[in-house]
Design a protein that fits this description.
The chain is of the alpha+beta class. It has a single domain, classed as Alpha-Beta Plaits. The protein is built from four helices and six strands, in the order E-E-E-H-E-E-H-H-H-E.
């Protein structure tokens, strides 16, 4: 199994909304992928960050059957449909993938 973690920093305002509203929209969009993509075992998104170093405003944690399933997820049209909005509202991204 492969775990995929992404941490984003958000722009204070983008797409006519403040960061917290954009974080909520990102959470809804990304968690809607659950059950839509083969090999995606689990996905959760939170913007209730207690502490982060480096700073982030929203975090995604997903689990995939294997590295091929992670690649399938990343290239899947449902996932790709989220990308334009995410790119417009974020100012930074850190990610890590590892085997469990």
């Amino acid at each position: 199994m492969v775990r995929h973690i992404v941490m984003w920093t958000l722009k204070e305002e983008a797409e006519g909304a403040v960061a917290k509203d954009n974080a909520a929209k990102m959470k809804t969009m990304l968690e809607a992928l659950k059950g839509q993509i083969e090999g995606l075992r689990h996905i959760e998104v939170s913007y209730d960050i207690i502490a982060a170093d480096p700073e982030c405003h929203i975090v995604l944690c997903s689990e995939h059957d294997d590295n091929d399933a992670l690649n399938f997820y990343q290239n899947h049209p449902e996932h790709q449909a989220c990308t334009p909005f995410v790119k417009k509202v974020t100012s930074g991204r850190k990610a890590v993938d590892y085997e469990v």
